[in-house]
């Protein structure tokens, strides 16, 4: 069932989103060669807790850590470990914060040192797809059109949408209705209305959309072992457009 948020509820969600955005801002200077994934996880958890919030992901369906950290071919749900970042890696850090009954959710992809031209282009196109999607989010437009815009931009640039994964509604639960697909199914639709809050997250890979889940039951990787990127914002539909909640 769809849940539409009041202006008061969205104001509370903005604080959850601000805390997530603060984490990403601080990560810009923290992510570098030699830093371990567990160090990144602890760094983010400290920021969330020190701002009066709770990590949304920790304990979610048994997930053991505060962040999902996805390096290179890892698409989503990477469990932080002692693995250290190397020059040329790209790393996506997905962060959620729970504040006074509401969640904020945002993932961002970072370059570590000097990365390949292909991975740089992957990151650029994926982030561009997110901003193009945000441009069409407003009352009266359709949910399906968000996916259509993302798909057109990604495929026009020679990359693949990972179609088994999608964005989602956000609110009192981390994952709510509706599912926000990153492609056009050509079927069904939902008209966007004021008060709906969604996480839009293009998830893009090189060469193939095929994925597999590792033995830990969480980590999802590309089958061709090439890199994946994801960019995500939590967004509220307003009376005349939309507002990004996961921002400073």
Question: Can you give a write-up of this model?
Answer:
Helix content is 29%, strand content 26%. The protein contains four helices and 15 strands. The protein has a five-stranded antiparallel beta sheet. Strands 1, 2, 4 and 5 form a four-stranded antiparallel beta sheet that branches. A hairpin with a 6-residue loop joins strand 11 and strand 12. Helix 1 runs antiparallel to helix 2 and helix 3 packs antiparallel against helix 4. The mean pLDDT is 97.
Summarize the structure.
The protein is of the alpha+beta class and 248 residues long.
Nearest-integer average pLDDT: 97
Radius of gyration over alpha carbons? 17 Å
Q: What is the number of beta strands?
A: 15
Element-level helix/strand string: HHEEEEEHHEEEEEEEEEE
Query: Which blocks of ≥5 consecutive residues have pLDDT under 50?
Result: none
Features:
248 residues, alpha+beta, five-stranded antiparallel β-sheet, four-stranded antiparallel β-sheet, 26% strand
SSE blueprint and pairings:
Layout: H1 7-30, H2 37-50, E1 54-55, E2 67-71, E3 74-76, E4 90-99, E5 102-111, H3 117-135, H4 143-156, E6 160-161, E7 167-169, E8 176-180, E9 197-200, E10 203-205, E11 211-213, E12 220-222, E13 228-230, E14 233-237, E15 242-244
């Amino acid at each position: 069932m769809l849940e539409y948020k009041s202006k008061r509820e969205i104001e509370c969600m903005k604080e959850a989103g601000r805390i997530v955005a603060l984490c990403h801002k601080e990560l810009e200077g923290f992510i570098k060669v030699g830093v371990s994934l567990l160090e990144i996880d602890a760094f983010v958890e400290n920021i969330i807790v020190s701002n009066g919030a709770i990590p949304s992901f920790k304990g979610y369906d048994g997930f053991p850590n505060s962040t999902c950290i996805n390096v290179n071919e890892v698409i989503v749900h990477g469990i932080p470990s002692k693995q250290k970042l190397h020059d040329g890696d790209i790393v996506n850090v997905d962060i959620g914060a729970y504040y006074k009954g509401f969640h904020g959710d945002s993932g961002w992809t970072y370059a570590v040192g000097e990365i390949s031209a292909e991975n740089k282009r992957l990151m650029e196109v994926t982030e561009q797809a997110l901003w193009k999607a945000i441009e069409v989010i407003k009352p009266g437009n359709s949910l399906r059109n968000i996916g259509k815009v993302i798909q057109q931009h990604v495929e026009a640039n020679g990359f693949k949408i990972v179609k088994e994964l999608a964005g989602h509604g956000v609110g009192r639960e981390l994952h709510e209705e509706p599912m926000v697909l990153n492609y056009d199914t050509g079927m069904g639709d939902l008209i966007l209305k004021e008060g709906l809050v969604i996480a839009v997250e293009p998830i893009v890979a090189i060469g193939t959309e095929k994925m597999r889940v590792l033995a830990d039951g969480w980590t999802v990787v590309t089958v061709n072992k090439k890199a994946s990127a994801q960019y995500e914002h939590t967004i509220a539909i307003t009376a005349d457009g939309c507002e990004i909640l996961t921002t400073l």
